[in-house]
Amino acid sequence: MIPARPLPERSCTVLKSLMKWAPSTWTGLEPGRLLPLQGSSRLLSVGCADHTKHQEPSGKKPLSEKKLKRHFVDHRRVLVRGGNGGSGMSCFHSEPRKEFGGPDGGDGGNGGHVILRADQQIKSLSSVLSQYRGFSGEDGSRKNCSGRGGAVLYVQVPVGTLVKEGGEIVADLSHPGDEYVAALGGAGGKGNRFFLANDNRAPITCTPGQPGQERVLYLELKTVAHAGMVGFPNAGKSSLLRAISNAKPTVASYPFTTLKPHVGIVPYAGHQQLAVADIPGIIRGAHQNKGLGLGFLRHIERCRFLLFVVDLSLPEPWTQVDDLKYELEKYEEGLSERAHVIVANKLDLPQARAHLPQLQARLGLAEVIALSALTGENLEQLLLRLKVLHDSYVEAELGQGRQPFSW
Ligand SMILES: Nc1nc2c(ncn2[C@@H]2O[C@H](COP(=O)(O)OP(=O)(O)OP(=O)(O)O)[C@@H](O)[C@H]2O)c(=O)[nH]1
Ligand SMILES: [Mg+2]
User: Where is the Obg domain positioned along the sequence (predicted)?
Assistant: First the structure.
């Protein structure tokens, strides 16, 4: 007899990865849990202490920024089709000693809708497939039995997803739990029982189910956060996000290190949380598609306030602020006038200290917060300012009878 041998380690890993993916494929067959949720928490760094612990399991190398970018999708064209309605049945009651039992064909069930639902656990549109078909209703059957209706197919999308059809915005799923019926299921057909009338006691007519609605939708993700960081490459945006939150975006001394938005959570007393988004650097001329272009600014469009991060160690740092504001204006008029703070980073460098008085003189003392993301100097001042901005935002929203966004 051959003794049982333990599986080699590599096979175990392969098996485990298969086990990890298999349920997400099967869920497509079940109503209610239909999405192949790629629940990888690495899709977007979320700086919640517990989350980050799960993000990088010990012994596993974190994914490089380049690989992470492949998982971050902020556009998607989706073809959605509602489920078809089931057909009605044409048949007659048949029973011993009951010759003319009458029509008893049941109606077909309605097709299931396809519904987009904003889910906070989903961080990018990468888990959204290119097409979805709703569940069809069952056909009607004998004895007036109606067919079962098709279950609703829920497609989970990130909070902040815009739904467009033919260039027009048809829905904005900006709050967790928001839903949008992307495609209606077809109505079920009628069985011949439905056509029973005084002048027609034995109808044989029955109707087929209607096909489900078919639409081509464009999904566009606009990250939702309280504060958005904008700055030139290498200004230290990612370093700052690392310093104030538990998010772990890559930091390096070359430009365009960050290739996808990151959201970090800054915890405050009383379980208050403030979401801060770090987006790729923009450069002068970005509106002419220089650097990474301005496409990423869509991720700060919804931010309630902005952090202009400038490198204080460079000569004439105020020109960075002017250039950033100019690029923002080119992207969307009025964007640069949103509530903001100017963060003068790299205060630890000697030349930076020399530039500070000039910057403050040009932009105003109150507006500039000089700090060092590297040494942590003066970070509290930024945290306090963020809190003040957040509180005034909450007050304004409540004043207008709206629920403020909370992460
Ligand atoms: N001395 C000093 N260096 C800093 C400070 N903050 C960031 N750096 C350095 O500046 C370089 C760029 O930092 P990042 O945080 O990657 O800059 P970024 O703005 O995110 O850059 P992109 O992602 O390319 O847009 C890194 O080498 C950091 O170590 C600081 O406060 N002081
Ligand atoms: Mg960065």
Answer: 70-224
